[in-house]
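[Q] Does anyone have a clean structure-token version of this?
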Amino acid sequence: MIQKTWYNLFRFLVKIGLFFYSKRILVSGEKNIPKKGAILFCANHPNGLIDPLIVTTNCRRESHYLVRAAAFKKPFIKKFLESLNLIPIYRIRDGSSQMAKNKEVFENCFEIFKRGETLLIYPEASHNRKRTIRNLSKGFTRIVFGALDKYPDLKISVIPVGLTYQNTSFYPSKVAIVFGKPIAVKTFYKSNEMTSSINNLKDEVSKQLKKLSVHIPDDEKYCSILAKLNSLNVDFTNVDSINKIIESGNYPKQKKKHVNFLQPLYYIIILNSLIPFFIWRKASKKIDEIEFIDTFRFTFSLFAFPFFYVLQTWIIYLFFDWKIATCYLFTSIVIVFVYSKFSETNTENT
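[A] Here you go.
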């Protein structure tokens, strides 16, 4: 009970943070999520650890998450992540000796399904900003088929989840989340034909993901297609229309790039947040993978900016009074809200 309360409290905190951090989060296909029963959510993975935060705060079902084991190295962080239903998954790059631990991880997943709960996994097995659905790993099929081996009467649904960002690693950005149609695992499971069962389920999930997120085939035309779409300044979160353009090759008329008339507000936000801003600028230089920029910036902003705003409010109160201090805090929040929700952003090269 305590763990569930903590999970819901933290999810609520993250949801508020994402509301101010994102320009807009567009969610569709929620009706495809059963209210009860075991579900494996299979999502594409363009933007680091912020992906599961966006999915979980916009899904009515409480979920568990498989995350690469490297994130669990420090004891305190390990305990914190586990309290939020995160489960480490080991890959070959973690060392062959570590791979044996996945047997226990899979057993844990089987029990999650047995209890009628949900699990989120990224079948591409790594993150990448490219606007394409990459080849899927067979790991997720091993989990659902393994659960059926152990519990033959179990009903498990796989629901593909498409994530498409207008601008990954930029603030603020629009995001589209599209939940696909449930796939009944039992219809693909043939214990005497495991290779075909695995390939057929992978193909079905991949097929849906290519429709649920913007998918540019990763071939010799990828760069030219992306450059053309970027030059047209399209809205990538209109997933269906963008995929139709890619498939047909019929491009719309070029639009002028947006002028961000609210850019002065950004500089006001920086001036009002100089200490956390410079801390972030210094810390961001140590981030090796661009896919983690959003993850660390959001996490830092979620805690640092409210703390410094409250601290500055208290300092203003000491010099003036509560009315002026409250006015300052309210104005600071409104400026961040207005810039996040109404500033114009253009497309990026990925």
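[Q] Thanks! Anything notable?
[A] The mean pLDDT is 91.
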